[in-house]
Amino acid sequence: MSKLCLYGASGHGKVIKDIVLSTNKEVQCFFDDYCINKQFLGLSVFSSDEIKTFEKNEFIISIGDNSIRKIISKKLTVQFAKVIHKKAIVSKDVEIGKGTVVMAGAIINANVKIGKHCIINTNAVVEHDCFLEDFVHISPSATITGNVTINEGAHIGAAATIIPNIKIGKWATVGAGAVVLKDVPEFAIVVGNPARIIKYKEKENE
Ligand SMILES: CC(=O)SCCNC(=O)CCNC(=O)[C@H](O)C(C)(C)COP(=O)(O)OP(=O)(O)OC[C@H]1O[C@@H](n2cnc3c(N)ncnc32)[C@H](O)[C@@H]1OP(=O)(O)O
Q: Which UniProt keywords apply (predicted)?
């Protein structure tokens, strides 16, 4: 199998490289139009106009920002892979879309569906019967309890907790440490325990 290419020479890219290595696969190179150095973690960094040479490789977009990941995924015409750290625990009864990464210590329980280009970060828990749409990010140590729906592009902050049966609207942000007891409207930013809306984001992602 050919080596993986990572789009985004970033901190997030460093962690994804480690995930790939944990599965005994290798990273071929990075792509990044904004990286001044042509080397990153000992690998070459190419610009996006050099992608054609690597069109047989599978890619991961290694950029943490959900909306930028969406924009780049629409521009690239490559095949995407999904990567799951060997120390993540993922039920056999889970669907995970291409481009999604699952980091070390994450636990994903039965009957969960996760879309494309999502991030399930270090030690995050996604409980049974949850549904996560594309471009969602579950940050480190967040707990998504049973039967929660998280719509496109939503970001759940580090160590946040979402109680069962809640719906998180598209492109919403749940602040670090928040405890979500009620549905969160699309584009809302909520913080605290219990979580409350502090503002709304621009609807730039539609
Ligand atoms: C591997 C990794 O690094 S993965 C990345 C994980 N990242 C995260 O978990 C970050 C999550 N982001 C946050 O928690 C951010 O603080 C956000 C998105 C909720 C808010 O950010 P901003 O829009 O910049 O809000 P801002 O910093 O201006 O704060 C607005 C108010 O909310 C409060 N606030 C902000 N975040 C939180 C929070 N997590 N919990 C409680 N209150 C908060 C601020 O104190 C401020 O209150 P004030 O108006 O009384 O002064």
A: Acyltransferase, Repeat, Transferase
Q: Which atom of ligand 1 is nearest to the CA of 189?
A: 19
Q: Which residues line ligand 1 (CB under 6 A)?
A: 121, 139-140, 157-158, 173, 175-177, 189, 191-192, 198
Give the dihedral sign, CA 91/92/95/99: positive
What the chain holds in terms of domains, given with CATH numbers, is 3-80 (3.40.50.20), 84-195 (2.160.10.10)
The residues carrying an active-site annotation are 128
**Using CA positions, which residue lies closest to atom 15 of ligand 1?**
175
ipTM of the complex: 0.98
Query: For position 205, what pLDDT does the model report?
Result: 58
Confidence at residue 202, expressed as pLDDT on a 0 to 100 scale: 87
C-alpha 156/C-alpha 148 separation (Å) is 12
- Residue nearest atom 8 of ligand 1, based on CA coordinates: 157
Cα 93 to middle of ligand 1, angstroms = 34
pTM, two decimals, is 0.97
- Cβ atoms of residues 75 and 63 within 8 Å: no
Q: For residues 181 and 162, give the distance between their C-alpha atoms in angstroms, rounded to a whole number.
A: 7
1 — pLDDT class (breaks 50, 70, 90): low
The yes-or-no verdict on residue 40 having pLDDT over 90 is yes
